[in-house]
Specification:
The chain has 88 residues and is α+β, with helices and mostly antiparallel strands. Helices cover 26% and strands 7% of the residues. It has two helices and two strands.
């Protein structure tokens, strides 16, 4: 399943640069995670990097976006293929 950032976020800016899928961006008040781009770092790292660096532990799994490990890998492959097509 994708991750989400809760309203406990302190906007410390450490999660956005570590996301390998560019799934994290600034929302209206706090950072947000695009569930269509979040793979929980599958294909890149063993653990979600945003969770690893978050000082207030405000990035839980998003129960509204349930995904199996297989689905996360499929999303990773789709995102990787899309990225390769954009490269010259």
């Amino acid at each position: 399943m994708a991750l989400k950032i809760t309203d406990e976020c302190i906007n410390c800016d450490v999660c956005e640069p570590v996301c390998p899928n560019q799934a994290i961006s600034m929302g209206i008040d706090i950072y947000v995670i695009d569930p269509m781009r979040c793979t929980e770092c599958a294909g890149h790292f063993d653990q979600p990097q945003c969770q690893q660096v978050c000082p207030v532990e405000c990035i839980p799994l998003d129960p509204d976006h349930l995904e199996s490990s297989e689905q996360l890998w499929k999303k990773y492959r789709r995102l990787s293929a899309s990225k390769e097509k954009k490269m010259p």
